[in-house]
Amino acid sequence: MTNTNNKIVKLKDNNKKLISIQENISEEDISSIKEISGKTLYSVKDNIIIFPNSIKESKDLEEKNKIFDIINDSIYTNNIMGFISYKNIQIKISSRFADDDNDYFLHYMLMKVLNLNIINLEHSKDYDDSFDFLIYMFISFFKKALRQGLFKQYKLIKHNDCYVKGTIDINRYIKNNIPFNGKISYNTREYSYDNNIIQLIRHTIEYINTKNRYILNYDNEIKNYVQQIFYSTPSYEKNKRESIINKNLKKLSHPYYYEYEPLRKICIQILRHEKLKYGSDDNTVYGLLFDGAWLFEEYLNTFLKKENFIHAENRSSTNGINLLNNAWIVYPDFYKLSENNNIVLDAKYKRLDSNENIDRNDKHQIVSYAYTLNAKKAGFIYPIESDNYKYDDYIGNLNDKYSNINCKIHKYALKIPSAKNNNFESIKDFASYMRIIEEELLKTLES
Questions:
Q1: Rounded to a whole number, what is the largest CA-CA distance in the chain?
Q2: pTM of this prediction?
Q3: What whole-number distance in Å separates Cα of residue 390 and Cα of residue 259?
Q4: CA 437 to chain centre
Q5: Averaged over 194-221, what is the pLDDT?
Q6: Phi, psi at 346, each rounded to 5°
Q7: For the chain, how big is the Rg over CA atoms in Å?
Q8: What pLDDT is attached to residue 128?
Q9: Residue 53 near residue 295, CB atoms below 8 Å
């Protein structure tokens, strides 16, 4: 049985919110929220989908991190966004740039990073946007998995003919072939595409189509993969959905088809979404979470790379630079090497409204990058709501008393337009405005 009085607590990233009974939150709800705050990412990873798919891909997230903290009856959020469901309460953490109705910036970053068709894939209006986020992730995981080929596994096939090639099934033989009619009942184990995993994907596709038939038909790659799934599941029956879910609850470990495990998890989340919205009687935390710092950095890369910025990645040990001749490799988020105009940038999703918010380690880091690359410009690239921007991004020049370096340190603001003040009617309008903002930022970096 589920609780139809499920409460929704709305939060924003990098913010503080007081929780109290006066806000129509019961003592039981507050107890549930405090229980969630005590859980680490590691403790919930089996039933929560965390993007990026591996915590190892994130330079900021660790398994010991918490989704949020509670200090003196106030919730303190961090760079994590998304939604979670636990018992009779649902917590939604939007980006701090969201208004009451829309979180266009989070939608936009996901669409850019996942390379979804921003022009045609509309942000749905007839159901909550937590379902939209599940669909975005399904499309991404679906493509990655199917690029590895259709998942196949051994399946028990029952036969009743005269071409015996497996294990004879005595009970079926007696039931079907006495008196003797020339046939033998037998079983074989054969590789099959019509298996529990592919059936789970088929049920998910059918469910998504009941919400929006267009969303899985917006590009030829998805349409081709959907056709493959339909062709490979002749035994599909709509009323077996719950049975198929239960057969896929166990983690999938396969040395080759490893992309099917995140797809399995997202399929179950989608098929159980309606149920989870209204609460669950078990003590499991469900949901989908995004690392805002990782997502913002990958989003920046979608347009900075077009201007020849190099995106160094610590976790994958790519595009690093040496502080010493052949040692001490470090990984600036972005740098660009050009004649007499080298630039190095550190991406920061957290609040950076004032210079006092710059962490001491970040200061030391950007200075070491600037000296090593002999940069002319260096600094921090960060998002801020355009209404709150104060045009004070210059920090200072590096001290040239002990060297010949001439480098200016700045904060480079990506000014996120306010949905309230710009009257965006859709994500498409917001995306068009963001492209202008991105161009302005690139011009500032090149000036």
A1: 103
A2: 0.86
A3: 45
A4: 24
A5: 90
A6: -115, 120
A7: 26
A8: 64
A9: no
Sign of the Cα pseudo-torsion (276, 281, 282, 283, in order): positive
Using DSSP bridges, classify how beta strands 377-385 and 408-416 pair: parallel, antiparallel or unpaired: parallel
Predicted local confidence at residue 242, as pLDDT: 94
Angle at Cα 172 formed by Cα 169 and Cα 174, nearest 5°?
105
Neighbours of 110 (CB within 10 A): 21
State the average pLDDT for the chain: 85
pLDDT, tens digit, 9 for 90 and up, residues 68-122: 999 888 899 999 999 988 887 889 999 999 987 789 999 999 999 998 875 555 5
Residue extents of the structural domains in the chain: 7-149+194-294, 153-192, 308-416
In contact, 219 and 117? CB cutoff 8 Å: yes
pLDDT-derived band at 6, boundaries 50, 70, 90 = low
Per residue in 393-447, pLDDT tens?
889 888 877 777 889 999 999 999 986 777 788 888 899 999 999 999 999 998 7
Mode of pairing for the β-strands spanning 7-12 and 89-94: parallel
Say if strands 321-322 and 329-330 run parallel, antiparallel, or are unpaired. antiparallel
Per the listing, tokens 């701090």 go with 96
pLDDT at 5: 55
11-34 average pLDDT score: 80
For the purposes of burial, counting CB atoms within 10 Å of the CB of 366, is it exposed (0-12), middle (13-18) or buried (19 or more)?
buried
Residue 170 CA to its chain's centroid (Å):
51
Alpha-carbon distances of 363 from 188, 341, 366, rounded to whole Å: 66, 21, 5
CB of 292 within 8 A of CB of 79? yes
Type of residue numbered 237 = E
Lowest-confidence pick of 128-142, 295-309, 324-338, 387-401: 387-401
pLDDT of residue 4: 46
Angle subtended by helix axes 129-146 and 220-231, to nearest 10 = 80
